[in-house]
Amino acid sequence: MHGTQVPIRARIETLENLSAHADYGEILDWLGRLQKPPQRTFMVHAEPRATESLKQKITEQLHWNVTVPAYLEKVTL
Asked: Measured between alpha carbons, how far is 67 from 47 in angstroms, rounded to an integer?
C-alpha cells in the first residue's frame, strides 16, 4: 500500500445465489446465518430511506454495529 508491504488477514468468500433484489427479510436471514458477526457493518448501497430502514432492522434484530457513511466520508479501519 503506497509502496509499503501490508500483511493481509482476509480470505475470499464466494456467495452463491445472492440476488441483488432480496427483500429485508431475506437479507436479515442471510446475515443471521453468519457464524461470527462482523465488528462493523457499512451500508453503502440503496436509497437513503431504505438504507436507514435496513440499518435499524439489522441493529435491532441482530445487534450489529451498522454505519451509514456520509458521501465521500473516509473511515479508518
From this structure: 15
Can you spell out the DSSP letters for 27-59?
A: HHHHHHT-SS--S-EE--SS-HHHHHHHHHHHH
Residue 3, C-alpha cell as written in the block: 509502496
Cα separation of 33 and 23, whole Å? 16
Please tell me the distance from the alpha carbon of residue 64 to that of residue 50, in angstroms, as a whole number.
17
| Nearest alpha carbon to residue 66 among 31, 23, 35, 20 | 31
The domain limits of the chain are 1-77
| pLDDT tens digits, 22-45 | 788 888 999 999 999 999 999 988
